[in-house]
Amino acid sequence: MDKLFKLQERGSTVSREVIGGITTFLAMSYILAVNPGILSGAGLEWGSVFTATAVSAAIATLVMAFCANLPVALAPGLGLNAFFTYTVVLGMGCTPAFALTAVLLEGILFIVLSLFGIREAIIKSIPLNLRKAVAVGIGLFIALIGLANAGIVANDTGTLIGFVNLDLKHASAIVALLGLVITIVLYTLKVPGAILIGIILTTLIGIPFGVTTVPENFSPVSKPASPHLFMFEWGSVLTVKFFIVFFTFLFTDLFDTIGTLLGVAEQANLKDSEGNVVNAKGALLSDAVGTVVGACLGTSTVTSFVESSSGVAAGARTGLASVVTAVLFLIALFLSPLFALVPSAATAPALIFVGFLMMRSVMGIDFTDLSEGIPAFITIIVMPFSYSISKGITFGIISYILCKVVSKKAKEIPVVTWVLGAIFLFDIIFEALK
Prior knowledge:
Blueprint: H1 2-5, H2 14-28, H3 31-39, H4 46-68, E1 74-76, H5 80-89, H6 96-115, H7 118-125, H8 128-149, E2 153-154, E3 162-163, H9 171-188, H10 194-209, H11 240-268, H12 280-297, E4 302-304, H13 308-313, H14 319-332, H15 336-340, H16 344-359, H17 370-386, H18 389-406, H19 415-433
Antiparallel strand pairs: 1-4, 2-3
Helix pairs in contact: 2-14, 3-4, 4-12, 4-14, 5-6, 6-11, 6-12, 8-16, 8-17, 8-18, 9-10, 9-16, 10-16, 17-18, 18-19
């Protein structure tokens, strides 16, 4: 173990890594309930997505363990699955196969870019403040989805959108708000696995309210469902719509992963002499491989989870912790009936709270520079208000170019950003003329 994972060199032990791996799993295992819930809205089978979620998370996390030796776990990402369901399938009218094809090609491209070190170069070409704004916008979007799924907000309250009355007619909303209170209290007290515990307790609270339904002859253990293997649609690959979807997956996953790696590396002091993340190429390759595997199994983009920081806080410093987390995901494969009990009212608090966690990036945005602050603001507000992550990125890039040109700072615009702006502007015009 010591030779393989360099335990002594990083000042760790087997027991600390095991505890760290378990802690990371507890912190992020809510994805096993949330991801199937979101993707089933796109027409995919709940059980099949559950299997795909667990298997893709396990494989990607094992690649991270052995290729990068980092205590970072991966799974289908929140925000990316929301874009998959609510924007691509329900909003744009595309099939799940269309979206999975975009995810597959994104993962294949990421493998190539990661192997040749091009991915790091692309990251440097995208404006820093826009990267942070994307995370914040997605956080608000996820929180809004959680509020809507739980029935806490509705559009029949006499206003464009508003909170419902907390009476027994809105039992789901009551249960979700109780769950949110529980999650906030547990997280504030730094209880390991606070989000997962919150989901469990909220599910139990939902039973007397009639929100959680326990089937007769319930058994917590079952054979894993077959995943949606190789569900792809190649006929639309060369369309503008496909490029927009493809690039949005690409862009969001790119910065989800690098942001998580930078944060965990800083927390665990896993940096080289120049301040770069150790084994960054292997780490970036891990989520690329995970994304390809996930697409083949029928789930949205796999990415690094910021909840890995909870495992680091518990002492994890090496890939051994990632091995432990991956094994727990495989064990969870046989416990799908437990996760199927979880109602949307119980996962809604997790979505809302993850929205808070993603909001932290707003502190790093420079709003004093109008050429940076205005595009960041536009990116943030467009995502939840348009119910579309892609529109947030589109208008964010275009407004960034506009503000820099007007501010006589056009030289600060990377070439890649100019190209993206032109493509997005063309798409807006094309949609208007259809």
